[in-house]
Amino acid sequence: MTKPTSFEQHLHQDLVALEETTAAPEIFRLAQARRRAMAQEKHSQPKILWPTFGVSLASLALVGVMLNGQMGLDNQQEASIKGNLGNEVANDEMLLDTSDEYLDLYEDLDFYYWLADTDMGSTS
Amino acid sequence: MEDTATVAVDKQLPYRTLEQFLKHIERRAFHMARISTGNADSAMDIVQDSMYKLVEKYSTKQACEWRPLFYRILSSRLTDYYRRKAVRDRVFVWSKSAATDCDSEITDQIDRAEGRRSETPDEMMMRSQRIQRLNYSVQQLPNRQRQAFMLRCWEGLSTIETANAMEISTGSVKTHYSRAMHALRDMLEDYRHD
Question: pLDDT tens, A49-68?
Fold first, then answer.
């Protein structure tokens, strides 16, 4: 740092002298401003970081929506599987029903053969 | 090693706590802001705002860092003030005359202030006149030159510290300061010879 010239030194002295001319009301107002600024430090509490908080909340909401969507999809799949199963069961039941009829037919087959033979005998 | 150096620097400082620092610096900051704005109320608002900002953001910093940080905030607030004023002056052209009130306000204040006890009435009067002329001359400087002059010559910041406070390069600080000194030499030709 270069040494200040005598002109600079004189300017500095007069500027420092200017500080001494501060009027009492202004000194009072400056002291008030200082106290208020310092009081702010004592009362300041850790502030919530709103942007971080917002991003976290949005992420949680997104995860929630995605999970919900996934669960909905699972339910749909489950329902469709159940539906398919239900159809298959119904078909089996139908098959069972028809097979019961066939069983009766088979059981009564001898009777029908006898009936046919007797009809043939009577006509011939 | 670094800690020892920091402690050594801290021992030289005339303040230990943030409140002591603000007390140490407040009058100078107020006069700087008043010369820059030409208005005591605006100057008070700017200083108060700078104090708030320093306490809010930088109270945990080391004591040796407070001074450059405070002047950086003050400088930034003054730049904001000039910008707002430029817009206001463009919109309300007739309000420009209000700035001239500052000269009479400063004169009143110097007249009201107590003189140094060792000074004779003649010396007090001479000093008062010198300060008025200096005040007027510093006000005539362009904003950047005035800021560079006040931070370098009045507050005694180094070129690097001034560059940091004004958020410009060291080369620009040197240019602004050199121009300010030339302008002041011209304006205060017979300074200290009266």
Answer: 778 888 888 999 999 888 88
Contact A57, A65 (CB under 8 A): no
How does pLDDT run across B123-178, given as a tens digit for each residue?
778 888 888 888 889 999 999 999 999 999 999 999 999 999 999 999 999 999 99
Residue ranges in B59-120 assigned as alpha helix (H)? 63-91, 101-112
Does residue B118 sit in the same domain as residue B71? Answer: no
Distance (Å) from the C-alpha of residue A19 to the closest C-alpha of chain B? 6
CATH number of the domain bearing residue B135: 1.10.10.10
pTM of the model: 0.63
Contact check, Cβ <8 Å, B159/A22: no
B85 and B120 part of one domain? no
Record the tokens describing residue A112, joined without a space. 């029908």
| Any A CB within 8 A of B96 CB | no
Written as six digits, the tokens of B13 are 């400082």
